[in-house]
């Protein structure tokens, strides 16, 4: 059964100017339910992740400033919106949803978080609307519990996973792979284990050629026993922030290839949705829903 983490708090309204991207968190499960692709049984609402687990990844001072709403105005500006208790609650539930998704992935092969992909959060900073790094937290949880020994993070959002790269810079058990827009945010990049920077206007064929050349080699070399996939749809040509020229169909082929590789090698995969900022919300929702459609077709 495909299990999907979703909680109404994911769609918590942000200050003016940030609300539009949040609509997708309600619309994605709504569309999947409308299509009959899933039922309510596929959806689960995660609880809050514990401080003990957060501190496997994030520095204690940073976490306490988040928890206690005492981050400096400068640090809040780096995140991109004013800190609030509800936003912190949202982040800790997203992180737990990704952890829960790992357990479901072990059982069913694949699992999703409607939100997540908060890859700009580093060990002691938040950035780019990310405060806690959900997939990094879940990866460290798996390592701590002895549930995985070798982890591959496949980050195909248009923005580099700079926080993820920094968190695992000195951890050989986690290999970080980021394929992203070279001239896009964040403008100060960290060093992933493998970065593939893409020039502006990279099209779908170019994107897919690089991916299909790279991912099978990484799996063969790293022999991961768990994969995290960040499936951002801000690579689309319609995206306001992406600067790439990838079509909707090519984005779906991307998802199919990544998930096929996971299934072919028997590697459980947890998928967090990442970014998407097309002008038309329908394009964002349809591209994200394609990732679920592909998973249903391959696994179920």
From TrEMBL:
<protein>
    <recommendedName>
        <fullName>Histone deacetylase domain-containing protein</fullName>
    </recommendedName>
</protein>
<dbReference type="InterPro" id="IPR023801">
    <property type="entry name" value="His_deacetylse_dom"/>
</dbReference>
<dbReference type="Pfam" id="PF00850">
    <property type="entry name" value="Hist_deacetyl"/>
</dbReference>
<comment type="similarity">
    <text>Belongs to the histone deacetylase family.</text>
</comment>
<keyword id="KW-0378">Hydrolase</keyword>
<dbReference type="GO" id="GO:0016787">
    <property type="term" value="F:hydrolase activity"/>
</dbReference>
<dbReference type="InterPro" id="IPR037138">
    <property type="entry name" value="His_deacetylse_dom_sf"/>
</dbReference>
<feature type="domain" description="Histone deacetylase">
    <location>
        <begin position="23"/>
        <end position="289"/>
    </location>
</feature>
<dbReference type="GO" id="GO:0040029">
    <property type="term" value="P:epigenetic regulation of gene expression"/>
</dbReference>
<dbReference type="GO" id="GO:0004407">
    <property type="term" value="F:histone deacetylase activity"/>
</dbReference>
<dbReference type="InterPro" id="IPR000286">
    <property type="entry name" value="HDACs"/>
</dbReference>
<dbReference type="InterPro" id="IPR044150">
    <property type="entry name" value="HDAC_classIV"/>
</dbReference>
<dbReference type="InterPro" id="IPR023696">
    <property type="entry name" value="Ureohydrolase_dom_sf"/>
</dbReference>
